[in-house]
Amino acid sequence: MSKEKQLVIRPENELDLKEVYKAKNGRMKESFYEQELQKLHIELCKLQNWVKKYDKKIAILFEGRDAAGKGGTIKALKEHLNPRGCRTVALPKPSEVERTEWYFKRYISTLPSGGEIVFYDRSWYNRAGVERVMGFCSQEQYKEFITQVANLEHMLIASGTMIFKYFLDVGKDEQKRRILRRKTDPLRMWKLSPIDDKSLSLWNEYTEAFEKMFARTHTHFCPWILVNTNDKKRARLNIARDLLSKIDYEEKDQTRVCLLPDPHIVWQYSEYQHHSDDPTQEILRQFKERKKAEKSQKKKDKKLQAKEQKELKILKAKEQEVKKELAKSGKDSKQKELKAPKENKESKANQESKAKDS
C-alpha cells in the first residue's frame, strides 16, 4: 500500500513515516501539518457551503485550560471560511446589569442564525470552570447553571442548532511554558490575563471542577469531546477531522482526505473513563493520588514535627549543659593560672633556702 493511500484511510498516528514527526521532540512537522490542513480547509469550505445552502445552524464550543490553544484552533479552522457566514464569540466579563439577569440570556443573542457557523472561545461553561474555581459565582448560581444547561442544549438541538463541545486539555509543564512565553513575547502579551498565573497554582482545583462538569453535562445528544493539545498542530488537525466526520455535508471527500481523528488525541468523555492512553484521565488519577498522599504526608509531617521539637529541646538542654561545663572549666583554668605564679615563687624560695642550708 502506498504512503499516499495510507494517509487517506488512516490518521498519522498509525503511519510509520519519519517525515510526519520531528525526531527530536515527537512534534508534528510544519510541512506535513500544512499539507493536511489545506485538505481539511477545502472540506471546511464545503461544509460552510452546505450550511448556507440548507440554512443549517452550527455552534462549536471551545472550553479548556488557560493556554490550551482555544483561540489558535479557532483561527486555524476559520482561516479560509467566508467571514459573512461565520463568526467568533468571546464575551468579556458580564456587566453589572448582566449579573442581575438570567445567566444564559447574554449567550442566547449570540447563537447562530440559519446558514451560520459560530465558534465560541469559551462559552456558557465559564460558570462551571473559571467562575466556580475563582469564586466569581456563588454556590447557588453554580447549582442553578448545572441543573439547567443540559435542558437548554436539548432545546437548542431540538430547534435545529447543531452543538459541538470541545474541551482542550494541556499538560501542566506545557501550560507553564506557554504562559511564560506570553510574558516574554511582545506579540503574545495580549493573550496574558490576570488569572493565567493563578491557573497554575490552582491546577488541582480546576481539574476537580472540570471532572464534575463533564460528569453532569456530558449527554448522548450533546457529548463532550476531549482533546490533548500538548502538540497544537496535531490537535487542530484532529479537531477538524472529528467535526467533519460527524456532519453529512455534500461532496465530502473521504477518498483523498483523512477524516479519521487520532483516538489518542480526540475522544469522547464516555470513552475516556476507560481510556488507557488518556492524559486527562491520568491527570485525574494523579490528582486523586496526590490528594491522598498530601493527606498522609500532613499526618507524617505532624508526627515528624513533634519528634523534631522533642529532639530540639533535648539538644538545647545538652547545649546548656555543655556551656555550663565550659564556663566551669574556664573558671578552673583561670584559678590555676593565678595559682601557678605563687607556686613557682614558693618553689624557688624553697630551693634557695635549701641551697643556703647546704
Characterise this structure.
- By secondary structure, the protein is an alpha/beta fold.
- The chain has 2 domains: about 5-275, P-loop containing nucleotide triphosphate hydrolases (Rossmann fold); about 300-358.
- Helices cover about 55% and strands about 10% of the residues.
- Helix 2 packs parallel to helix 11 (about 230-245) and helix 3 (about 70-80) packs across helix 11 (about 230-245).
- The termini are far apart.
Tags for this model:
Rossmann fold; 358 residues; 6 strands; alpha/beta; disordered N terminus
SSE blueprint and pairings:
Blueprint: H1 3-9, H2 30-53, E1 57-64, H3 70-78, E2 86-89, H4 96-99, H5 105-108, E3 116-121, H6 130-134, H7 139-158, E4 161-169, H8 172-184, H9 196-201, H10 203-217, E5 224-228, H11 232-245, E6 266-268, H12 269-272, H13 279-357
Parallel strand pairs: 1-3, 1-4, 2-3, 4-5
Antiparallel strand pairs: 5-6
Low-confidence stretches: 1-9, 274-284
Strand content: 5-15%
Please state the average pLDDT score. 85
- The total count of strands amounts to 6
Spatial extent as radius of gyration? 35 Å
List the total number of helices. 13
H/E series, N to C?
Answer: HHEHEHHEHHEHHHEHEHH
Oligomerization status of the protein chains: single chain
Brief rundown of the structure:
Helix content is 57%, strand content 10%.
